[in-house]
Amino acid sequence: MAKNRVSATVNGDAVEFLCETQQTLLDVLRDELRLTGTKEGCGTGDCGACSVTVDGRLMCSCLMLGVEAQGKSIKTIEGMANGEALHPLQRKFLEHAALQCGVCTPGMLIAARSLLERNPDPTEQEVRYGLAGNLCRCTGYHKIVEAVLDAAREMRGA
Amino acid sequence: MSTMVKYEEKPLKIVGTRPIRPDGVDKVTGRARFAADYSLPGQLIGKVLRSPHAHARIKSVDTTAAQSLPGVKAVVTRDDFADMPSEFAAAGELTINFRDVTRNMMAREKVLYDGHPVAAVAAISESIAREALKLIKVEYEVLPHVIDVVEAMKPDAPLLHEEQFTDGVTPKPDKPSNIAKRLVFARGDLEAGFKQADIVVEREFNTKPVHQGYIEPQACLASASEDGQVELWTGTQGHFVFRAQCAKVLQMDVGKLRVVPTELGGGFGGKNNIYTEPLAIALSRKSHRPVKMVMTREEVFRATGPTSGANVKVKIGCTKDGRIIAAEAELNFQAGAFAGSSVGMACPCTFTRYDIDNVKVVGHDVTVNRPKVAAYRAPGAPIIVFGVESVIDELAKTLGIDPIEFRLKNAAKEGTQTYYGPKLGPIGYIETLNKAKAHPHYSAPLGLNQGRGIATGFWFNIGMETSSRLNVNEDGTVTLIMGTVDVAGGSRASMAMMVAEELGIAYDRVRPVIGDTTTLGFNFITAGSRGTFAGGMAAVLSARQAIERLRQRVAQIREVALEDVLWKDGSAVPAPGSAKQFTPMSLVEIARMAGKTGGSISGQSEINAQGAGPGFCTHIVDVEVDKQTGAVKILRYTIVQDVGKAIHPAYVEGQMQGAAVQGIGWSLNEEYFYGADGVLQNPGFLDYRVPVASDVPYIDTVIVEVPNPNHPYGVRGCGEVSIIPPIAAISNAINNAMGVRLRSQPMSPPVVLKALGEAAGGKSKG
Ligand code: FES
Ligand code: FES
Fold it and tell me: What residues of A are in contact with residue B262 (Cβ under 8 Å)?
């Protein structure tokens, strides 16, 4: 099968990869670039486990083709911490026990970061609706919502 | 020989605190490796061809064209696997039969459900593997199928297994049946009991199968070498049990198969069984390359086990003042394509919250043309408890007794004789009822179209075979190797906490890891809420053995008797009052000298843990019903649960909250839709709707701690029981709000709307 050559930026690094036309951005991240932090829960845009940002916009990477990444800047969970320093959301998820199996966690964190960029001071309901595209089967969402609200508070310096 | 370790009350430094889980940082940074994240050089991708029919005889399978497609390295069909005779084994909470295991992983004579595997290929890329599947020609003779459990029980129903005669009836039936088994549990004199009753309520309930809905689809990676050794990485709740099952169906020595459990992306009972693992191993053997297989979400829904759908009947009789005298239930559970549903677990859970003299519970395990069911958190119990707790609610309402008061009048307590065998030990059921009653939630005001419901649950919890090893490293840090998979509840954290408590060292000095099957003796699967109970017991015993050896070492160094050395706060100190005084030695000091004083120090334990303490809980839920749409909104939810002892309270709360929200999804939204052709119509998260964050409120948790006398820290196991009450609690709340009583699940908007319409038309009851 003929492959396409694609250049993009992933977590700030210039990357080039070859992909089949039908391969999704998720397939490319996981199988070609070996960035397996982004998860596949459904492959149909229904679970949010594959959430990444593309030029700053929150996307399901399973709904975008690898070839569409040409020239774009992709951010994944692997680029969320700043070296030693975890992102406040990552820290708050740990402190609030907001993860169990952890398979939804990368997508949840990426979606939560995107939510707080758009709305730094969300209500509980806004967090719940903001994360409604991200399924978690383990936690019942309680501690996730608490962690996001607490991280928002800290990030606002409140 | 079984092991119980006595509970000792003592001051605690670490147990009961909330440290960060050892697997946490890897999970928030994307570093944690789940099965699908593993790859090996030269690996192939394996894919499965699945039946498009609910029931058909396989006339032929022709793989010639697929095999000659460039890039295809191996194809396997039924011919590549040995037939297995009927032979039973335990796997989690359910029992498996190897005759069926081998037929479920790869159909033999017939396909029995939409999605049943018929062939598998391994190719150099996923796209080639998919292409190859299209080239496999299967000739089917389509047979009539049956999806519904009541239909399947009829004598003229399409038959799944010609050789299946109902077990448990005498004389042995002369005709085969879809009813694989009949179970009866009874105590007292039912008829006399019902005669004494002032009021008797009898109702019928129907539930749909629901899926565990773990977010990580099944995945595995197998590598077989030419000398017969095999390595397998897989997401499993029990790698030793997977090893046993794979070795059996592939007819290989257990010792030749090394199973490495990867980080597990949710299981809830659904990852107790092998699916693609033996296929991957067979493909790897044939192709001489590693083979990776990852299920799609569609495959997960079509072919992995949900829990049973069921038809149940409940009849309860009580006196005017609310004392239950007699209770009877019939449980008809779908097993899916092969016998072995959770009905055997559900029967004893039916009434075991109440002290009732006259009880009879009859269960039927029924095969239907659906995927073979698997365990799902407190398997079977939510289904029957929906019926029982609804009838209890109706009785209380009819008698004008407060529903918690009604339950208190009948509540099981220490010494209550169960109808399935044992007398109950110390339990916390009454405590959960009293705490629920006193909770501000229970007396908070309600608005228009709002209602409150309560329901309760009981779950056994289990112990079983467990082993662990604790190595004291040369710098005094400790490695704890466990054989029970951390199914995400945080058992690694809680075991490390118990070990740190025992040794008297800081939590972060203990590194807990799950060992692969080559590192420890057999461990049963993590099921039945046994992880922290049995795994914890084994870890504590390993720590105690290590302490004994540390003391021995100090006795030798200081030239004193063992009794003169006491272990306290992480150091060996002279026993008080002993004539032999010496300078204490810390764990670090002893560890540093270990090489020169006799070699490294470790502790080990192999046990069959018994004495798991049953768990009880009481749930309170407030709902609001939208009269226009029929949508039910959960306004407030409170769980009161006896966990014995919460080693890590935040992770215990997480178990309670997660279980309740699964129960909420089960109640309101989740169901499978099969077409008239027996094909599953909603194999995806779009149409199989699990709860999202905006569907639920905060879930309040109240932890009750009535220690389990058979665990060193009083642990009962807490992972399952809170999935039991939600369906009943929500149905009771809907009744409280609107006066209608729903006796089928899910209580989705169309169902609720219809019930409201019927009630308005004067047909209301309940
Ligand atoms: S994998 Fe992309 S939304 Fe589920
Ligand atoms: S933590 Fe398991 S799915 Fe969210």
Answer: none
A49 and B215: CB-CB below 8 Å? yes
The pLDDT, as a whole number, for residue B94 is 78
Residue contact A142–B699, C-beta within 8 A? yes
Pair (A36, A103) in one structural domain: no
pLDDT of residue B528: 64
Nearest to A137 among B37, B662, B693 (CB): B662
Model pTM above 0.95: yes
B266–A35 CB contact, under 8 Å: no
Say which of A35, A102, A144 has its CB closest to residue B32: A102
DSSP B673-715: -B-TTS-BS--STTTS----GGG---EEEEEE----TTSTT--
B residues 210-239 lying closer than 8 A (beta carbon) to A: 212-217
Query: Is A65 in the same domain as A36?
Result: yes
pLDDT digits (tens, 9 = 90+) for A75-100: 999 999 998 899 999 999 999 999 99
Backbone angles phi, psi at A111, to 5 degrees: -65, -40
Name chain B contacts of A109, Cβ cutoff 8 Å.
28
Residues within 6 Å of ligand 2 by CB: A 99-105, 136-139; B 215, 266, 488
Write out the DSSP string of B377-407. Answer: SSTTHHHHHHHHHHHHHHHHHHHT--HHHHH
- Interface confidence: ipTM more than 0.90: yes
Q: How many CA atoms does the CB half-sphere of B341 hold within 13 Å? A: 34
Q: Which pLDDT value is given to residue A115? A: 98
Residues B432-460 pLDDT 10s = 999 999 999 999 999 999 999 999 999 98
Residue A130 sits in a domain of what CATH number? Answer: 1.10.150.120
Q: How far is B212 from chain A (nearest CA, A)?
A: 8
Report d(CA B482, CA B631) in Å as an integer: 46
pLDDT tens profile B680-700: 999 999 999 999 999 999 999
From A47, A79, A111, the end of a domain falls on: A79
Cα–Cα distance between B292 and B556 in angstroms, integer?
53
User: pLDDT confidence of B3, banded at 50, 70, 90?
Assistant: confident
Q: Are residues A67 and A100 in the same domain?
A: no
CATH code assigned at A32: 3.10.20.30
Structural domain ending residue among the three candidates A29, A48, A79: A79
What is the tens place of the pLDDT at every residue in B218-247? 999 999 999 999 999 999 999 999 999 999
Write down all domains in chain B, each with its CATH number in brackets. 35-143+218-294 (3.90.1170.50), 310-461+613-760 (3.30.365.10), 463-606 (3.30.365.10)
Is A136 in Cβ contact with B685 (below 8 Å)?
Answer: no
Ligand 2 centroid, distance to B723 Cα (angstroms): 16
Please answer yes or no on whether A135 and B685 come within 8 Å at the CB atom: yes
Domain tally for chain A? Answer: 2
Q: How many residues does chain A have?
A: 158
Whether B634 has a pLDDT exceeding 90, the answer reads: yes
Domain containing residue A56 = 4-79
- Domain check: are A102 and A75 in the same one? no
pLDDT of B765 higher than 50? no
Predicted confidence at residue B456, as pLDDT, reads 98
Residues A30 and A71 in one domain: yes
Chain A partners of B266 at a C-beta cutoff of 8 Å? 100-101, 103, 137-138
Considering only the C-alpha atoms of chain B, give the largest distance between any 2 of them, rounded to a whole number of Å: 90
B307 vs B642: CA distance, rounded Å: 25
Task: Give me the residues of B, 291-330, that contact A with CB < 8 A.
Answer: 294, 296-297
- Give the closest residue (by CA) to ligand 2 atom 3: A136
Mean pLDDT of B756-761: 92
Q: Cα(B66)–Cα(B46) distance, rounded to whole angstroms?
A: 13
Same domain? For A121 and A56 the reply is no
pLDDT band at B762 (very low <50, low <70, confident <90, very high): low
| Interaxial angle between packed helices A88-95 and A142-156, expressed in degrees from 0 to 180 and rounded to the nearest 10 | 140
The answer to whether residues B70 and B150 touch, using CB atoms and an 8 Å cutoff, is no
B-facing residues of A in 10-69 (CB < 8 A) are 20, 22, 30, 34-44, 46-47, 49
